[in-house]
Structure formats: structure tokens, C-alpha cells
Amino acid sequence: MEDIITVAHGSGGKIARKLIENYIKKYFLCPELKTLEDGAIIKINSKKAVLTTDSFVITPYFFSGGDIGKLSICGTVNDLTAMGAEPLYLTCGFILEEGLKIANFIKILKSMKKTAKQAGVKIVAGDTKVVPKSKGDGIYINTTGYGELIDENLKISVLNAKPGNVVIITGNIGDHEIAILKDREGLKFSADIKSDCAPLNNMIKKLIKNKIRINVMRDPTRGGVAGVLNEIAKSSNVDIEIYEEKLPINKVVIAASSMMGFEPLFLANEGKMIIILEDKDAEKALKILRKSNLGKNSAIIGYCKKGNGIVKIKTKTGGMRILLQPEREQLPRIC
Amino acid sequence: MCLGIPAKIEKIEGDFAIADFNGIKRQISIQLTPDIKVNEYCLVHAGFAIEKITKDYAEEIKRYLKEIFKETENG
Amino acid sequence: MDNKSIKKLYNLINIESKKLKNKINLMEVCGTHTMAISRFGIRSQLPPKVNLISGPGCPVCVTPVSEIDKILEISEKENVIITTFGDMMRVPGTFSSLEEKKAKGKDIRVVYSPIDALEIAKKNPDKKVVFLGVGFETTAPSVALTLKQAKKQKIKNFFILSFFKIIIPPMIALCMDKKLKLNGFICPGHVSAITGAKIYKILTRKYKIPCVVIGFEETDILTGIYMLLKQINNNKPEVEIQYKRVVTYQGNLIAQKILKEVFKKIDSIWRGIGEIKKSGLALSKKYSQFDAEKIFSFDISYSKEKKGCRCGDVLKGIIKPVQCPLYKKKCTPEKPVGACMVSSEGTCAAYYKYGEK
Fold it and tell me: 3-class SS at C10?
């Protein structure tokens, strides 16, 4: 019989211990985790620290360009990164559904290990619970992240966008959500597209080390670029004007969007950052970003203006329209 | 009231065809456009080709614009 | 398309509009046109004499609450899978919506094509699979062909709840409406691909209203508006096709034939407009075995349209969304009251999404 997760794996007994020893510890081993205490002792300097947490629920949990494990590392690493922090430690909580194949669990753990290594973070504590069959979608993961500010003089906040600031996105828009839809049962289309899921900390660190004056950073996950820009505009009380022709978008994402009636600016991304910075630093920042493989399609997409929290988009042919906050998940439509 | 997306026919299998929507591939029904051939274009709605597009899309737009501008210059 | 051509087109429209005696109303019947017009920001760039109003061409918007209640009732029955286009998921019935039913554990699936719904039926022979048929002449043939296939393959567990409507009867009703002063129709592009432009002949001949079948690119729409202005100024109402790359005068004859075979015309209620004679499509006798109306029983005596909602006047183009007391207040895309806000191509949703006034 194939190895699968059973309720016993969540019981706290011997089988549960084995799951941790044989699999989780094996992949995430580091001195802080080694003794499997109730918590990990980590070294905190006198630096300013950043703490964040995020839970990951996705169907299917393996998808083109990633899986739920990779996503759970990237999501939390990118949240820390967006605060201007260097991500150092993660904890992870698994909620496993009875019946999950152990082989799939291992694949996810391996992927987490690889991504954590790429990002340079350690996974130092964790928890596993098992829920009965049909009470979950195979696997849910929560990760909590700890990081420290790279430059304490840098005030990165959603409140800090100023008129004249430049808006940069670090690459193509919408790849993640279209890739997920492609892999999901139901819509039955095929396309050469992968999720952009990636840890952005190493690339962003270069900007900060090069003294780029960043005022706001946000990763446009759910709610997409439109969601993030609206939040920034409202919080900072500026208008943001973006240009349709400057938006980096893969032609496959455009095609899928027109086929299903989606607004690409509402689509989720998992490996992109929106950066709002002083205009004098924009070109230099762009140069640094484009050197990185994850940022090679970086582009200046717009500017902040004096105003009161409205995001506008200038169409390719000169029309101007308001870009609202997406209300909720988009559904494919025929009208 | 109805989204219609142009697609290129890549392969025909009976009443169905694989259509390329500029990088997205999907099976569609071609029962409403039975004489369509591989490499020809059609307009797709809800998974059905509803009409053949006989001319090159962009070319036609160019052509009618040229017509209308010429007409007004002369008039 | 290039900026220069767009500017030129606006310029032509401007020049032509100067010859107009009065302010004119052009109605875009089709919701996809409403969306495109909003997305390109066309309304704000037209001369003040040219007013665009949005018509009843969004299937989600014109489906009455009582019909939504029917599908919601079916979703409550045992061993049923509801399949639908994404458009219908959030449309509120009297008490609930398909989205809410799904959240409560009912088996409701969004499909891209009716063919996919038939596949679901084949894979689940022990369940009754119901497809919610909404739309106009563009969509109805796809369902007709799917039913033909179901019949050929002797599939017994696939059913259609047909809310299909045809577009000409409400256009005639609008021509006769005294409150409205229509000067031209921007005719729907994709319906016309099926029906042919010939269906609009009655509008130009009997009601003297210019009709142009228009495509969905910015240059298409501007060119079409220019053609309408010229017709109005020359006082020669006729049916013209701007969208020639897709639409012919005769239309798709195969589709027209299959529509006749699978459907029959019935009187139908349009949300906010009321009953219009012979404006709906129900399954014909030959296909009645697939008719969900005949398989399931409903009691929808509780059905009620929401109070205060002025979708009807919006659908007829009598008021703009901002003039409805609920718009942006009680009625938002997040929590829609009226159907015009539910459908992303609904007039209210389009105005909301693109911040139009």
C-alpha cells in the first residue's frame, strides 16, 4: 500500500514523532531546530526586527512553476522583504489531510528546503496537525517569518508615497494566477506559462545596499497590482497614474485574460514587487533590478501625483480611466 | 453581451479543433463553421467557433481606417 | 491601434457632430460594448452633443429574480450538479445566490463551455447535471449543439434550464418607448455574427432608426459612431456593418437552422422591462427530455425584485447608474442589489469599475 497521511500522524504519538524525525527534521535541520524543543532559541541583535505570518491554501498544491511549499516560503520571505528586512528565520505549521501521500509531502518539504536555501532563511520551528479526510485540500501551510531591517534609516511604509515618486514593478504581471487556473481542473486550456513564485529578498537587498531611497514596497499577491496601488494611494493620500503601454505582461496572460474576461491588473502575483521610490533613483534601481534574473522585466509603470487616493490608468490610445480596487476573485465569464 | 475571441485553428478532429488564442490552446467545437481549415481564423464564444474570420484582423482595421480617412479628405 | 488614427477619428466625429441639429442619443445594446466604451474612456472624449446610453444587452442583467430562484431551488435537490458560466454565480435571487449555495456545500461548477457541462454529466451518470442557459443568439447555438450531441449519445442525466433571450423584441420595444428618444443603435457585434445584420432592417424601415453593427476595438467603436452620425445627418436610416471581418448580412445560416430546431420562441420576462412577446427561447418539443423546467418542480411564489433598485430604468437607458439611489451606496460589486451591478458587463458595474459619471 502506498504511504499516506493518516490521523495517527497527527496524534502526537510514535507515528507522529516519526513523521517529524524522518521527514520534517530531515529537510529543515539546523542547530536551532535540532533538539525539537517547544520553541527555538534564536539570536536577536539590537537591530530592529520584523515579524510576519501568512497561511497558504492553494488548489492544486503542485502547479507549473511551484508548489504550496515553495509558495509558503516565498510568501513570507517577500512580506519581510517588502518591509525592508533581511529574512532570517521561519516557522512552519502544517495542516495535513488524512490520505495525503507521503511521497507528495516529501516533495513539498524538499521544495521548501530548496527555496529556503535560495532565500537564505532557516526553518527553526514547526507544527503538524492532521484533519480527517475531506476536511481539507490535502495540505495547508502557515509560515511565520522573522527578519531584521537592512537599513534602519530607510522608512519603508505604505504611508510614504510622495508626489513625484516613481512606481516600479519588478516584472511581468499576472503569471501566477493564470498558471494556477491552467492547472486547475475545469477550464481545460493549455499554455506555456509558469507561476512567478520566487523569493525576492536577495534582489531587493541589492537595492537597499546601493542606497536606493525606497519609500513604499508591497508584493502584489491577491488583489493584484490594482489592489496594491489602491492601498498605497489611499494610505499615502496621493494619486497614482500608471500607463497601460508600460505594463510588462506576457502575451499568454493577455490572451487568457481576454478569453476569460479578466482584468490582468487584478491577477495575483507571487514573485513581484511594487516599489515606489524617489524619481532620481529610479533609473539606477531599474538597472540593478534588471541584472537579476527575477527582475529582468522590471519597468517604470507610473508616477505618484498630488491628489487624494485615486489610481488612474492612461490607456494606450490616450484615454484615462480610474483603476478601482478589485472587489473579489474574478470568475471566467462569457459576457 | 458576448465575448468573442479570435483564434487560429491548429488541428481538426471531426467536429472539434484545437485552437490557438495567441498562446492559449483549447479544444473548441467547429460545428457552426464546418468548412474551416487548419491555419484559418475564427471567432470563438463559449468554446464554439461562431464565424470564420476571413481576413487578417489587423489588416482589416487598417483598411477601413484608410478608407474612412480617404473618404473624408476627398469629401 | 495607433494614437494618430484614434485622434483622427475623434476629430471626424467632432466635425460631423457640428452638423447635428440637436443632442442625440445612441444606444449601445450590448454589454460588451458598454464595457469597451468605459474601458477606452470613450464617453468622456465624445462631443457634448453625442450621448451614449446603455441598453438591455447583458444576459445577467435582464434575467429576472424569479428565474434565478428556480436554479437556486434546483441546487437544493438531491444528487444534482449545477453547471454555469461564471457570470451567473453572484446574481442575487430573492434570498441567496449560486455562490452562497456553493459555499454551503452545494455542487455548483463554473464552466467555460456547455460542452464541458456535458462532459461532467458523462462522468457523473448517477447525478442530474443541470446547465444554466443564459445569453442571447450568440450563446444559444452552442447549447443547441451540445443538446444535439447529448441526444445522439443518449445521455439521460443532462438538462438545460433555458433563460435564453433574443435581442430584436426589446430593441423594438425601446423604439416605441415614448420616454426614450433614440437616434441610433450601436448593434451588438457577436449576436449579429449569428443572426446576420438583416434582423435590424425592421428598425430602420419601420422606426427610422439608424443601425450600425460595430466591433469591439476602439477604432471599431469610433468608426461606428461616425457612421451613425453621418446617417443621422443625411437623414437616411439604414443597416450598415462596420464589423465586416466577422459579421455578414445573412449571418451564420447553420446556427440559425439549429436554433430553430432546438428552441421555440416564448413570451419572456426581462428584468426591469417586463414581459415581451416572443422574446425568449425555450426547448422545443423534440428536445423536451432535456428541459429542466419539466424535470424539476419549483415553487417560486416568494420571488420578489429588490425594492428601490432602478435596474429597469438603467436597462432602458432612461437613467444613468449614478441617478439610481442605491448606486455605490447600498449597491456595489461586492454586495450587488441589482443585476446591472452583478454582471461585470452590467451597465452599473462598468460605470463603477471605470469610475464613470
Answer: helix
In chain B, how many H helices and how many E strands? 1, 5
User: Would an 8 Å CB–CB cutoff place A7 in contact with chain B?
Assistant: no
Inter-chain touch B34–C85, beta carbons under 8 Å: no
Residues of chain C with pLDDT under 50: none
CATH tag for B5-74 (out of 1.10.10.10, 2.30.30.140, 3.40.50.2300, 3.30.420.100): 2.30.30.140
- CATH number assigned to the domain comprising residue A188: 3.90.650.10
Q: What's the CATH code of the domain at C82?
A: 3.40.50.11740
Cβ <8 Å between B48 and C135: no
Q: What is the mean pLDDT of chain C?
A: 91
Worst-scoring range by mean pLDDT, A183-192, A281-290, C66-75, C179-188?
A: A183-192
Which residue of A188, A251, A335 is in closest CB contact with B22? Answer: A251
Q: Is residue C16 part of a domain?
A: no
Reply yes or no on whether the pLDDT at A328 is more than 80.
no
The answer as to whether C285 is a domain residue is: yes
CA–CA distance, A288 with A280 (Å, rounded to integer) = 14
Same domain, A139 and A175: no
ipTM field: 0.90
Give me the domain span that covers residue A33: 7-149
B34 contact residues in C (CB cutoff 8 A): 254
Phi/psi at A28 (5° precision) = -105, 10
Greatest distance between any 2 Cα atoms in chain A: 67
Q: Does A335 touch chain B (CB under 8 A)?
A: yes
Give chain A's domain count. Answer: 2
- Asked whether residue C129 is domain-assigned, the answer is yes
Number of domains in chain C: 1
Q: In this complex, which chains have at least 3 CB pairs below 8 Å with chain A? A: B, C
Contact C32 B1 (CB under 8 A): yes
DSSP codes, A82-142: HTTEEEEEEEEEEEEETT-BHHHHHHHHHHHHHHHHHHT-EEEEEEEEEE-TTSSSSEEEE
Report residue A1's pLDDT band, with 50, 70 and 90 as the boundaries: very low
Gyration radius of chain C over CA positions: 21
* Proportion of chain A above pLDDT 70, given as a percent: 99
Of C45, C344, C352, nearest to A319 by CB-CB distance is C45
Residue B54 has pLDDT above 80, yes or no: no
- Which residues on C lie below 8 Å from B32 (Cβ)? 141, 145, 252, 254-255, 258
Residue-range domain boundaries for chain B:
5-74
**Domain boundary residue among A98, A122, A149?**
A149
Q: Which residues of A touch B61 (CB under 8 A)?
A: none
Comparing alpha-carbon positions, the chain A residue that sits nearest to C344 is A335
How many Cβ contacts (< 8 angstroms) between chains A and B? Answer: 42
Q: Which chains touch B (3 or more CB pairs under 8 A)?
A: A, C
Grid coordinates representing C9 are 477619428
Residue C49 has a pLDDT of 94
Q: Is there a domain that residue C101 lies in?
A: yes
Both A136 and A216 in one domain: the answer is no
The predicted-structure confidence for C267-290, as pLDDT tens digits, reads as follows 999 887 889 999 999 999 999 999
Across the beta sheet with C184-187, the strand order is C50-57, C24-30, C184-187, C211-213, C239-241
